[in-house]
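User: Could you check the structure of this?
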Amino acid sequence: MKLAVAKETLAGEKRVALIPESVKKLKAKGFTVLVEKGAGEGSFLSDKEYVEVGAEIVSSADFKSADAVLKVRAPSP
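Assistant: Sure, the predicted structure tokens are below.
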């Protein structure tokens, strides 16, 4: 199963749906994890930290291949 983590767009929202430690655990269970470029910046998490645990850094256009998109807040219209 392929999961995608979207960057939050709501003003003031600094959280991210998955932290690198969670990505590491999901990867160990066989999941593929895509993380939108810069998704963790508000939480002081770099793209490099996600890559180090096995995530792929992508643009939102690459979410088409994901089985589920993870966000903290509901997607904007």
